[in-house]
Design goal:
Order of helices and strands of chain B: EHEHEEEHHHHHHEEEEEEEEEHHH
Distance between the termini of chain C: 62 Å
Strand order of the largest sheet of chain B: 4-5-10-6-7
Number of helices of chain C: 7
Helix content of chain B: 25-40%
Strand content of chain C: 5-15%
Number of helices of chain B: 11
CATH topology of the largest domain in chain C: DNA polymerase, domain 1
Oligomer: heterotrimer
Largest sheet of chain C: 5 strands, mixed
Number of strands of chain B: 14
Shape of chain C: elongated
Number of domains of chain C: 2
Radius of gyration of chain B: 19 Å
Distance between the termini of chain B: 56 Å
Number of domains of chain B: 3
Structural class of chain B: alpha+beta
Shape of chain B: globular
Helix content of chain C: 25-40%
CATH architecture of the largest domain in chain B: 2-Layer Sandwich
Radius of gyration of chain C: 19 Å
Order of helices and strands of chain C: EEHEEEHHHHHH
Largest sheet of chain B: 5 strands, antiparallel
CATH superfamily of the largest domain in chain C: [2Fe-2S]-binding domain
Number of strands of chain C: 5
């Protein structure tokens, strides 16, 4: 009988959020605070010939103007929350402020701190920049060619290149009964978190720069320290409860700017991006251009997959190599295929930085491979579910890197359950509406790349009054990353969850738990917390055993006490137990570290073996209604089925699936980020459309709990997986309804209608 | 750096005086649904913000016999929640249901929606189809009444005299026509119309008469599609008529290509929305 | 005629008069966050497109970034903090907690205000009417389902309280309920589950 595990307990942070008490980054103000503003490039590609800041500096109320020359280390090698290098193919540069050139529209050139936000803005307008515009490179496909101007610091525009070579695709294609080819394009996507990037920094009495910031990675204190040429210990991140991350607050956003301004002015500084600024200039999901070729036997066994993937790496590589790697490893999907050939390229262009976004490469290739599966099923006349059944990965099969996946795989059950929950397709009574059903299945890793040697730490302390304190550096983006640690501790130690006080994200006072990215927190800090809790629990049981004269194996931990299973009246309450332990000098605290599996860094572009700790498998089945006259889409039903290993808190788990599914819905249907010559044309929420409550159905979730996850109690990660496979489920449903194959997202009504008309013309 | 000032006139005369004195340097602040985003985006030059939001006598729906006079400060929410409008002017009422979102409806005014002169203003096609007249007043020109079709000069350009303020809109009530307003957006709320159509007609002996069709977002201004109306007049409402009228409509609209859609798609929508409106009106 | 560039306004925020200088182009949102220190009112876009700044102004739920601070002189504004003692708001807050409707929480204050306003005007909304009621409030985390479930739950409680006198408790209690585990299916009207859940909680369960 569990105390908290498996229960939909409200999150510990939720009660403050519903009262409006949570102090998000921009809600925090300090006496004497200045306001920061970033001056940004007006051109997507230009040399900076001159930069004159005198007029701005002399404006009354302006306290500091900073340009590249004022930054101690303006350029660092971009690693990623890593203390060790993992090789040149994963590195790029992190440039704080543009110096001789700008590579993207909106690139930061100068910083201002002033007494009011209006003055800061006015000062920015007074900074004179002399640009020499350059010919911009905007298309990754042409940017790969020889003789094209180099966008970045590397010798050519291909920032990264990876390969998969499994089996012999040439031979397999030669013998295939059917070959399906397709070209797919997926666009930028903006995280569109409701909280814009924001933070406040100040220098405290001992000269430490404190940065209170909405960030998914507090380990960036190291880079910020290096930027300022300070020891790491002189920069402290105080993370806030984050108003949405999704990967957009994974790279450094405002922190270096804040640190520089606070350091220069010796006053607190606040910097909050406007929504326009955020939409125009902050990092986006990688657009991918994908060419696929799939070969199969006539009874639907896929024998070969060949893929050429090109991602738009933007103007600074940031996490582009990593996203490309994820896409490469996921390129064939959750299917057992003996022959796979993948060439993938991340290509630099003069466009905004592309970096982490929920799914991190997996949703992009998933759109391609699930469209290929659907094409194959049509081509062969085999039911979409059945075709997948014949090819789904099973325990003991190898992935495209050759790694044997030796754990149970629930993808088949997930696809079946989702598809069957949709039920049979009916014909619409309205002749102008076509109904279609679509299936999408996918896999998504949880846990970081294993060659990064990921670790996480957590600390628990028992208080004399029977309460407890957890300290863990885990940033919380709203998915219960912090809360779940309290549930774990409450379960193991028999504490009511209300008596647990959680401290998170202080880079100097809470043990570093690693990034809130890669669907890794439940797995990593969850396991670290579990480990710490179990050590404490063991000490408690040993002492209780002594006190009660009952062997440890006959004792159980229940809410607030430890008692004998056979003689429940033999019990000791938590408070006397803890006090006894304290008197005897038994340590009432544990800091534990959890290590993910460690593998070696890939030696070259050839990717082989284990890359991730594990994967989460799931599927979506959707019903769509297409209006034949306008191409408009209505989605009455979305069914999701995921194997989550174990749902430690089913309400939170459902929330991740419902939210991720709808974010994927937006990616597939409504989020049309238009860009022209490197400048985003949709810089507001009125133009870049994320779904509202009247655009979406109630997402139906079916949870499978195989218990085979690597996380606490057999849990798998669920943060990113719901982003995968909803898009192709929708486009496959569109094909089912009206026979239009959408190969580039989003599937707008215009594309659908034009597709229908093209068909009509074709058939005449 | 822009400089803005603020003034709240105490009555209509004062408002007109200020508007007259400041001319193009004055901006009307009522619901501010368009004004404030423009201010924040620094799209407006130095100007005087004239707060008319509480001027007496410019808010509310008055019915006199078979005519309604709606004050320009009446909010979209007030219109959407009016039983009188639902029964008496259902075309306008329908447009108000899908306008923006409930929060914006609580502030946005009829005068503001028209005065902003966006080709996508959702209240414009119904008012055009209802042959609404506009009552406006300026200090120099006094009061004048004119058909709403004369109001729209181009995208963002309104045909008002210097210092002129829209006081009210007047349209017939209880015409007992078959009506439908159809709006097409890329999202179901908080969406600027890609295209919209307002249609009203009567069925007499199985034939369509007194057909009024107005389009939004399909030309430089909202407009009446007279040729398409002719095409429908005196015809039965069947597929054949609608197909022919759709073709006519596609030729009559003047859509643009922008970030939301291409002109060819909008052209197709013109026909589709007409057919949808006709079916809805007659169902 | 007094043309003012810098004005002083007094606005009653959650029952407290706040006087401060403002600029002509300042919005009510600017005033609330900067002068009145009402940081429970969020700024997600400052352009009228997201609803995180929703407050009750002059009795109506509106986006405070779309009101000039100068226009609000002498007016009443209520934010989430000003409704803490309101039984309907408390019911909504509890329902948001029960149903898991809070993830990052940034949209939550605005969403609660819009939901409160909806139930004030329409105490027994259909699920579709609930969707319409919050259609001006964006959420990026939840996909809206649990928010709608929470509104449903609060509405059911409202109804149950009003009908407490003549209501047969036994009829309303449907299946057994695990607190916080209930998944609400899409439905047109408040369904039996929502009523049952409300009954259960009213009777001290959960």
């Amino acid at each position: 009988m569990s105390i908290t595990i498996g229960k939909g307990i409200p999150k510990v942070d939720a009660q403050h959020k519903v009262r409006g008490d949570t102090i998000y980054a921009d809600d925090y103000s300090v006496p004497g605070m200045l306001y920061g503003k970033v001056l940004r490039s007006r051109y997507p590609a230009a040399r900076i010939l001159a930069l004159r800041t005198a007029r701005a500096e002399h404006l009354e109320g302006v306290v500091a103007v900073i340009t590249a020359k004022d930054v101690p280390h303006n350029e660092l090698t971009a690693r990623f929350g890593q203390s060790t290098s993992v090789g040149v193919q994963f590195e790029g540069i992190y440039r704080v402020l543009a110096d001789q050139e700008v590579r993207y529209f909106g690139e930061p050139i100068a910083l201002v701190a002033a007494e009011t936000p209006e003055l800061a803005e006015q000062a920015c307008q007074m900074i004179e920049v002399e640009y020499q515009p350059l010919e911009g490179i905007f298309d990754p496909v042409t940017a790969m060619e020889q003789g094209v101007r180099q966008v970045a610091e590397k010798s050519h525009n291909i920032a990264s290149h990876f390969k998969i070579r499994k089996g012999n695709v040439e031979e397999a294609f030669a013998h295939a009964d059917v070959i399906v080819e397709g070209t797919y394009q997926v666009p930028y996507q903006d995280h569109a978190y409701l909280e814009p990037e924001s933070g406040v920094a100040w220098v405290d009495e001992d000269g430490t720069i404190n940065i209170r910031v909405s960030s998914q990675v507090i380990e960036h204190f190291r880079e910020v320290a290096e930027v300022l040429d300070l020891p790491h210990s002189r920069v402290r991140y105080l993370g806030t409860w984050i108003g949405g991350g999704f990967g957009g607050k994974e790279d450094i956003t405002v922190e270096s700017f804040l640190a520089l301004l606070a350091w220069k002015t010796r006053r607190p500084v606040k910097l909050t991006y406007t929504r326009t600024e955020s939409l125009l200039t902050h990092s986006k999901r990688h657009p991918f251009f994908m060419e696929y070729k799939t070969g199969a036997t006539k009874d639907g066994r896929i024998t070969a997959v060949q893929a050429r993937l090109i991602s738009d790496a933007g103007s600074y590589s940031a996490l582009s190599p990593w996203v490309l790697l994820y896409a490469t490893v996921n390129a064939a999907g959750p299917y057992h295929v003996d022959n796979i050939w993948v060439d993938s390229y991340a290509v630099m262009t003069n466009t905004p930085v592309t970096s982490a976004f929920r799914g991190f490469g997996a949703p992009q290739v998933n759109f391609a491979y699930e469209s290929q599966i659907d094409r194959l099923s049509r081509c062969l006349g085999i039911d979409p579910l059945e075709l997948r059944r014949r090819n789904f990965l099973r325990q003991g099969n190898s992935l495209d890197t050759g790694w044997i996946y030796d754990r149970p795989v629930a993808i088949c059950e997930a696809a079946e359950k989702a598809w069957n929950a949709l039920g049979p397709k009916v014909t619409s009574p309205n002749p102008r509406v076509a109904i279609g059903h679509g299936l999408g299945a996918g896999m998504c890793s949880y846990g970081r790349l294993t060659f990064l040697h990921d670790t996480s730490r957590s600390y628990i302390n028992l208080e004399l009054d029977g309460s407890a304190v957890i300290r863990c550096g885990v940033p919380d983006v709203g998915g219960g990353q912090g809360h779940i640690l309290c549930q774990i501790a409450a379960e193991e130690l028999g504490l009511p969850i209300e008596s647990i006080k959680l401290f998170i994200t202080d880079s100097q006072l809470t043990p570093l738990a690693g990034t809130t990215t890669a669907t890794r927190q439940l797995y990593m800090s969850g396991n670290a917390t579990l480990k710490a809790a179990r050590v404490l629990r063991k000490r408690m049981l040993e002492k209780a055993s002594q006190m009660l004269c009952v062997p440890v194996e006959n004792l159980q931990v229940q809410a607030g006490k430890i008692l004998s299973t056979s003689q429940p009246e033999k019990s000791v309450d938590l408070v006397p137990l803890v006090n006894r332990m304290s008197t005897e000098g038994i340590e009432l605290f544990v800091e534990a570290q959890f290590n993910a599996p460690f593998t070696s860094i890939p030696a070259s572009e050839m990717i082989e073996g284990q890359i991730h700790p594990d994967y989460t498998f799931g599927a979506y089945a959707v019903e769509v209604e297409v209006n034949r006259e306008t191409g408009a889409l209505r989605v009455p039903r979305i069914v999701a089925c995921f194997d989550v290993g174990k749902a430690l808190n089913p309400v939170i788990v459902e929330g991740q699936i419902e939210g991720g599914g709808i974010q994927g819905f937006g990616y597939a249907l409504t989020e049309d980020m238009k860009i022209e010559k490197g400048i985003i044309q949709t810089p507001s929420f009125a133009e870049y459309l994320i779904p509202t409550a009247v655009d979406v159905p109630d997402l139906e979730t079916i949870l499978l709990e195989s218990g085979t996850g690597l996380g606490p109690y057999g849990a798998k990660g669920i943060g990113e997986p719901p982003m995968v496979s909803i898009a192709p489920a929708l486009t496959n449903a569109i094909f089912d309804a009206v026979g239009v194959r959408i190969t580039s997202l989003p599937a707008t009504p215009e594309k659908i209608l034009m597709g229908m008309l093209a068909q009509e013309e074709g058939s005449e | 750096m822009q400089h803005y000032s603020f003034y709240k006139p105490r009555g209509l005369i004062e408002a007109l005086q200020v508007l007259s004195e400041y001319g193009g340097r004055a901006r009307i602040a009522a619901g501010c649904s368009n004004l404030l985003p423009d201010l924040k985006a620094r799209h407006l030059q130095d100007c005087l913000l004239v707060d008319i939001s509480e001027l007496e006598g410019l808010r509310g729906i008055q019915a006199e016999g078979n005519w309604a006079t709606v004050g320009s400060l009446t909010t979209i929410a007030e219109l959407a929640g009016s039983p009188l409008l639902r029964e008496g002017a259902p075309l306008l009422w329908q447009a108000c249901q899908s306008f923006g979102d409930p929060l914006v409806r609580n502030r946005a005014t009829l005068g503001g929606n028209l005065g902003h002169a966006s080709p996508a203003a959702d209240t414009a096609p119904p008012l055009l189809a209802m042959e609404t007249s506009v009552l406006a007043e300026s200090l120099s020109g006094g009061r004048r009444e004119f058909p709403i079709a004369e109001l729209f000069a181009g995208p963002g350009r309104i045909n008002l005299r210097p210092g002129e303020l829209i006081l009210s809109l007047r349209f017939p009530l209880f015409e007992r026509k078959k009506v439908a307003f159809v709006k097409f957006g890329l999202r179901n709320a908080m969406a600027i119309s890609l295209a919209s159509a307002a249609l009203s007609l009567r069925m007499e002996d199985g034939l369509m008469q007194d057909v009024k069709l107005a389009y939004g977002s399909l030309a430089a201004t909202p407009f009446r599609a007279f040729r398409t109306e002719e095409c429908l007049t005196g015809m039965p409402c069947n597929e054949e008529t609608l197909v022919r009228a759709s073709t006519e409509a596609q030729g009559e609209v003047r859509p643009i290509t922008d970030i939301r859609a291409s002109s060819s798609y909008r052209r197709l929508l013109a026909g589709a929305l007409l057919r949808q409106a006709a079916r809805a009106a007659l169902s | 005629m007094e043309i003012q560039s810098d004005l002083k306004v007094t606005i009653r925020v959650n029952g407290v008069a706040v006087s401060a200088p403002v600029q002509a182009a300042d919005s009510l949102l600017d005033f609330l966050r900067n002068q009145a220190r009402a940081t429970d009112v969020k700024c997600g876009c400052n352009q009228g497109d997201c609803g995180t700044c929703t407050v009750i102004y002059d009795g109506k739920a509106i986006k405070s970034c779309l009101v000039l601070a100068a226009q609000a002189d002498g007016k009443e504004v209520r934010s989430l903090k000003g409704l803490m003692d309101d039984p309907l708001m408390q019911s909504l807050q509890n329902a948001f907690l029960e149903c898991g409707a809070v993830q990052c929480g940034f949209c939550t204050p605005g969403m609660l205000m819009a939901s409160w306003s909806l139930l004030q005007d329409n105490p027994n909304p259909t699920r579709e009417e609930m969707r319409q009621g919050i259609s001006g409030n964006l959420c990026r985390c939840t996909g809206y389902k649990k928010i709608l479930d929470a509104i449903s739950l609060a509405a059911a409680q409202l109804l149950t309280e009003h009908a407490a006198a003549g209501h047969q408790a036994g009829q309303a209690l449907g299946r057994s309920i695990t607190p916080g585990r209930e998944s609400y299916q899409a439905s047109d009207r408040l369904d039996g589950q929502a009523r049952a859940k409300a009954e259960y909680l009213l009777l001290g369960g959960g």
